[in-house]
């Protein structure tokens, strides 16, 4: 279940998600043509889809993850979901236009993107997070949007053995044409696209204290974008702390 627990120092509601017992819910596979329209949108603005990692067993919504290979213009992998937007999210009163969303994550060109590579959690965690976050709003009858942060557990643990990043924030991608950010499905339903951007503990705490805008100002200052860099600079510490495998 989801509990509105407290407010952060920046004035935003903090929600706590607890596991709940429930029966299996047959997945929603989306309206005819819905996923195809999302696919065309990505191919128009990002690049040709190379592969689709189809979900074999689904619950509530059917989440597929698509892969766009690096190109000379965009030298990074793009992974994105279809399925999160098959159902509306339970948004608070007053922001009804934000109840449909899909997610993406951008990975450096050397990241292995194969079924074989995904047997290693160090390579698979971006896909796991795409699927987990895409299903979360429907599982807990809540919503996700711009500036929402999710730690990797409580207490937060590193996203993998190769990094000290231990949580994520959802942000609109910045290395795209502005028209990419939304997709009007019909006169009443618009999908918004958010990038999963990993955070360090100090960045998560800074965002809770000062708000999303102050954190993204720091990202802008240090050139942090949506491409995942496992050992990037921690913008809330004075120097880079390199990760060393124990």
Task: Describe it.
The chain has helices at residues 34-45, 121-139, 201-210, 212-222; strands at 2-7, 13-17, 49-53, 64-68, 77-82, 101-107, 149-151, 167-171, 182-184, 190-199. A hairpin with a 5-residue loop joins strand 9 and strand 10. It has one domain. It contains 4 helices and 10 strands; from the N terminus they run ββαββββαββββαα. The radius of gyration is 18 Å and the shape is globular. Strands 3, 4, 5, 6, 7, 8, 9 and 10 form an 8-stranded mixed β-sheet that branches. It has a two-stranded antiparallel sheet with strand order 1-2. The longest helix has 19 residues, at 121-139. Helix 3 crosses helix 4. With 246 residues, the protein is α+β, with helices and mostly antiparallel strands.
What is the element layout, followed by pairings?
Elements: E1 2-7, E2 13-17, H1 34-45, E3 49-53, E4 64-68, E5 77-82, E6 101-107, H2 121-139, E7 149-151, E8 167-171, E9 182-184, E10 190-199, H3 201-210, H4 212-222
Parallel strand pairs: 6-10
Antiparallel strand pairs: 1-2, 3-4, 4-5, 5-6, 7-8, 8-10, 9-10
Q: Strand percentage, roughly?
A: 15-25%
Tally of contiguous helical segments: 4
Separation, N- and C-terminal Cα atoms: 37 Å
* Total domain units: 1
Q: Could you name the ranges where pLDDT drops below 50 across 5 or more consecutive residues? A: none
Round the Cα radius of gyration to an integer and report it: 18 Å
Q: Helicity, in percent?
A: 10-25%
The string of secondary-structure elements, in order, is EEHEEEEHEEEEHH
Sheet of most strands: 8 strands, mixed
Mean pLDDT: 92
SS-derived structural category: alpha+beta
């Amino acid at each position: 279940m989801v509990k509105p627990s407290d407010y952060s120092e920046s004035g935003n509601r903090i929600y706590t998600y607890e596991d709940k017992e429930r029966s299996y819910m047959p997945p929603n596979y989306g309206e005819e043509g819905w996923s195809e329209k999302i696919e065309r949108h990505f191919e128009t603005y990002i690049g040709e889809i190379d592969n689709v990692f189809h979900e074999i067993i689904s619950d509530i919504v059917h989440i597929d993850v698509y892969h766009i290979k690096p190109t000379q213009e965009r030298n990074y992998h793009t992974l994105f979901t279809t399925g999160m937007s098959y159902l509306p999210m339970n948004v608070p009163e007053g922001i009804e236009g934000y109840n449909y969303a899909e997610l993406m994550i951008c990975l450096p060109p050397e990241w292995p993107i194969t079924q074989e590579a995904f047997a290693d959690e160090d390579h698979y965690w971006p896909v796991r997070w795409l699927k987990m976050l895409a299903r979360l709003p429907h599982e807990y009858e809540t919503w996700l949007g711009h500036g929402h942060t999710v730690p990797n557990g409580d207490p937060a643990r590193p996203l993998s053995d190769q990094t000290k990043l231990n949580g994520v924030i959802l942000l609109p991608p910045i290395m795209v044409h502005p028209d990419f950010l939304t997709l009007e499905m019909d006169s009443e339903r618009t999908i918004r696209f958010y990038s999963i951007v990993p955070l360090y503990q100090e960045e998560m705490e800074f965002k809770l204290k000062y708000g999303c805008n102050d954190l993204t100002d720091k990202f802008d200052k240090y050139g942090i974008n949506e491409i995942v860099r496992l050992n990037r600079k921690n913008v809330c510490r004075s120097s880079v702390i390199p990760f060393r495998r124990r």
